[in-house]
Specification:
The protein has 350 residues and is an all-beta fold. The protein has one domain: Methylamine Dehydrogenase, Chain H (7 Propeller). It has a four-stranded antiparallel β-sheet. Strands 8-9-10-11 form a four-stranded antiparallel β-sheet, with no helix packed on it. The protein starts with 36 loop residues before the first helix and ends in a 17-residue tail after the last strand. Pfam families: Lactonase (PF10282). This is YncE family protein.
Length: 350
Amino acid sequence: MNTPFYHRHVQPISRQHSAYTTRPRPYTDRATDTLNPLLRLLGIIVLCASASAWAGGHAYITNQGSDSVSVVDVTNHKVIATIGVGKAPVGVAVSARLGRVFVSNVEDQSLSVIDSNTQRVISTIAIKGAPVGVALSADHSQVFVANWFDDQVLRFDSASLQPLGSLSVGKAPAGMIASPDGQWLYVANRDSNDVAVISTKDWNISARVPVGAHPFGLTLRRDGKQLYSVNVYDNSLTIIDTASLQTSSVKVGEHPYCVALSPDQRRLFVTNTQGDNVTVIDVASRQVLTSIDVGGYPEGISASDQHIFVANWFDDTVTVIDPDTLTVISTIRTGKQSRAFGQFIDPSLP
């Protein structure tokens, strides 16, 4: 059987991997023979008072297998809406400031724009290639989309949705995140094993930082001083000092995928897709504290002002973790193959 696009194929029981196709694809999950390879294409490796009240209080979970987004109330842990989007939604970026949610749809090569007041799609942007990661600029004036197959980052005006240009980066760009001062965009290049540092002013690559094998998900400390890269093949997390670009690493679980910081920024939470758990790391000491069992094949992860939310692809659920007690407090049923790649809860809100 051919490896499905975006993840390596994983056997549901043995968890043995098949070989890559000619070009390594983004990691898929427990795919079966019946899954359309294009559906899995880019199922991997970011996010909108009136609008603040809506987007800031909700998590937007992309469900790749049901072509939908589940809107989860982050206070009562219930799905309050299900929104039909394009085929095989993967990436997500939320702006409460704009009252908008941006979702990448891999199979029909598009970006859906959701109004978070009405919870309806209001526009669709055609994107030639394979849109994966999505991120917003610090001021939310621009939307960035990682085009996996063309090794590019695209940017759009977030209000007019007009294209503003593209930039060639490393091979197979996936996760992205912008610095809080608005100067930099960080891009994980999975098949180049590095993170590109892009100047948003000059729109060029300022540096490329070597990390572990196959970086995918990224997150950034609120003050912008430390960047974290999840390295799938190394089973590691790279910590990057954004001033010096010096790095260090911490071993995590098996086949890690994405990372989020706790609301108080004291702990890191890393999803391990083939361990069905989340590794918890103390930020100050850089020591692993524990691992927390969650649903099957956890992928996307984000923090609200109180809890950690984990999308579980195999179980079609979201697990809610208390970041202080490090216990699971809720499990929420979502759509089919929940992925939620990106910051699916607006990180600019307290």
